[in-house]
Amino acid sequence: MAIKTIDPKAITTPELHKILLAAVAPRPIALASTIDEDGQVNLSPFSFFNVFSANPPILIFSPARRGRDNTVKHTYENVKAHKEVVINIVNYDIVEQMSLSSTEYAKAVNEFEKAGFTQVASEVVQPPRVGEAPVSFECTIDRVMELGADGGAGNLVISRVQRIHIQDQYLNDNGDLDTQKLDLVARMGESWYCRASGDALFEIPKPIFNKGIGVDQLPKHVLQSTVLTGNHLGRLGNMETIPSTTAIASLKESEAVQKILSGANEDQLLHVHQAAVKAIENNDLEKALTLLFCLN
User: Fold this and answer.
1) 3 state DSSP class of 202
2) With b meaning 16 or more CB within 10 Å and e meaning fewer, what string describes 35-60?
3) Torsion-angle region of 292 (φ positive above 0: left; ψ -120 to 50: alpha; else: beta)
4) How many CA atoms lie within 13 A of 257 on its CB side?
5) Is the pLDDT of residue 275 over 80?
6) Are 80 and 26 in contact (CB under 8 A)?
7) What is the CA radius of gyration of the chain?
8) What does pTM read for this prediction?
């Protein structure tokens, strides 16, 4: 397998920026509302963003220095002058308006108005929140960490959540945020975005509290399979125990397995692996694992 290896110091900042944004994705989007020392409102999106702590509740985003001329964004200037921000979460319903708000308007221009967003008064901070956002976090700024002085350098805005506003329509019957209803969007490389809804969403059971057997404990023929993928192996390796000899013997006696095992050795391997994949897709991991051990 061919590999392209790059020394970050050997390429330009725009080239490096392009690689980082395409590879480190999808990234959630912080639609950040701030005010300057005169109380003028600014609204701008940032995809260098995530949650980093629940206790205390900390969100961090980074209004990086512009690579082309090393200037800084109004958001950066604002959080240095007035240590408050509202971080609004972006879903599909407002993604085009969010994109419009990223336009580099003059300092006196209110992006709420340009993007057609509703300006809603916050409870404990001065910057307003976006009325259309599914979730908004009123935050105070703990500190701003400057990562460099050259173009492309990030400025980490470490924000402490003081209030959370959630629109009721995005809650499930238990009062929890519903991922399917949220329909969130995320930033990819270049002009690409992705949408977290429909077939793009899938679940993976969380690892068990006890230690899984690990992929290294699976039969050698499983590790060499051309049918079972790394994802399949990961699911099987999370099983808590290797099947008992009794369970393996019992499954071997079943008519379906007897039919598989009656074929030539190469056919046995292929058909057992295919049957195991089907069992995994049906979330019958115990059957899949036992089936694979029938050839061990």
Assistant:
1) coil
2) bbeeeebbbbbbbbbeeeeeeeebbb
3) alpha
4) 19
5) yes
6) no
7) 26
8) 0.86
